[in-house]
Design goal:
9 helices; Rna Polymerase Sigma Factor, Chain: A; elongated; about 170 residues; mainly alpha
Length: about 170
């Protein structure tokens, strides 16, 4: 493939998928600025190997896996542990019908450990099957099921607590 044609194909792919990648990245990390950084790093990794990736049957799946792996690798790095911020509210993407419920869900999602958060995003936002999520995460289907189960239980608990707190403050 000629370099110019390769670059044009890559540019077209990124232009069509960058918003989707950014939304997935935001759901993983809960911060729009950090999501932009994750997407940029993912796009860079895709560009480096584009001649091989463009021949893959499911380019979106490959890109999603690179994004998730980039997020998880960042979570394990010492730099992230030293610079992580806590207690700040995430940026709001758009106006929702029930803004309080949306913020509660985002807080509950942000409180999940990184692998559980990645599992929830892949299974319920990206609508992947258990096997597809397992492939994207590089783990077994059983691991995806257990991570999903724990994550959903934590989300339910977190949202129930938020509802009780909201009820108390409205009295």
């Amino acid at each position: 493939m000629a370099k110019q044609a390769r670059d044009e194909e890559f540019t077209e792919y990124v232009a069509s998928r960058s918003n989707w990648l950014r939304k997935v990245a935001y759901l993983l990390c809960g911060d729009w600025h950090r999501a932009d950084d994750l997407v940029q790093e993912t796009i860079t990794k895709l560009y480096v190997h584009w001649s091989r990736i463009s021949r893959v049957e499911n380019v979106d799946g490959y890109a999603r896996r690179v994004l998730v792996n980039t997020f998880l690798a960042e979570q394990r790095s010492p730099w992230w542990r030293r610079t992580s911020r806590t207690g700040s509210a995430p940026d709001i993407a758009s106006v929702c019908v029930d803004l309080d419920a949306s913020l509660d869900l985002r807080r509950a999602l942000a409180a999940l450990p990184p692998r559980q958060r990645a599992t929830v995003v892949l299974r319920y936002y990206c609508d992947l099957t258990v096997d597809q999520a397992a492939e994207a995460l590089g783990c077994s289907a059983g691991n995806v099921k257990s991570q999903s189960s724990r994550a959903v239980a934590s989300l339910r608990s977190g949202l129930a607590t938020a509802a009780v707190n909201a009820e108390r403050t409205s009295r």
